[in-house]
Amino acid sequence: MSDAPPQRAPQRIALTGFMGSGKTTVGRLLAARLGWQFVDLDSAVEQRAGKTVPQIFSEEGEETFRQAEAAALKELLQLPETVIALGGGAPTWPAVRDLLAGDGALILLHLHAPFPVLYERCVAQARDPRSTPRPLLSESEAAERRYKHRLSIYAAISHRTIDVAEMDAQQVVAEILTDRPTWGQSPT
Ligand code: S3P
């Protein structure tokens, strides 16, 4: 668990968690409930680069993608009243963790579920021809190793971990909003 959430009114909420945890779906709904804007970090990277995430991975490699994530995130952390869905691997990079830790008006939430639940969701999403392929999800055992490595990172940087395995996106949003009365209040 990171330091306490911001003591002044938060301006941004970022959602972190492994692929398939619902960051984008929940983020969009949460932003609508709050009357805030929603930005997906992958989409922001794609817009800046003029390429899709799989293209960046295949043409320039993961390191370039991670640098692009950090650069895009730096801009997003200037925006008021914004919900941000981070890419699942973004917080594995120290530059991204530093940016998140340096934002005093950010609430960071970890959407957590067991690996098999998330993997199944990703496989189901991949069947949709409109979905963007996930370059790092090709093989289940490697993905599970990645998941295990990341869990402690997600937990360490987040203000709260929410177990989303048994909930749909609306329920996750409702759960997040139970904390709303305390946002921006000093701990007593
Ligand atoms: C990645 C997750 C993806 C995307 C890229 C790499 C990862 O985002 O950033 O494919 O390393 O876990 P989602 O978590 O939104 O799928």
Can you walk through the features of this model?
There is one protein chain. By secondary structure, the chain is of the alpha/beta class. It has 8 helices and 5 strands. Strands 2-3-1-4-5 form a 5-stranded parallel beta sheet, with helices on both faces. The protein starts with 11 loop residues before the first strand and ends in an 11-residue tail after the last helix. The structure holds shikimate-3-phosphate (S3P). Residues 19, 23, 42, 53, 87-89, 134-136 line the site of shikimate-3-phosphate. Residues 19, 23, 42, 53, 87-89, 134-136 line the site of shikimate-3-phosphate (S3P).
Quick rundown:
The chain is an alpha/beta fold and 188 residues long. Helices cover 48% and strands 13% of the residues. It has a 5-stranded parallel beta sheet with strand order 2-3-1-4-5, with helices on both faces.
Keywords:
5-stranded parallel β-sheet; 188 residues; single chain; alpha/beta; binds shikimate-3-phosphate; 5 strands
Report the sheet-strand fraction.
Answer: 5-15%
Radius of gyration: 16 Å
| Biggest sheet features | 5 strands, parallel
Number of helices: 8
Q: Which small molecules are bound? A: shikimate-3-phosphate
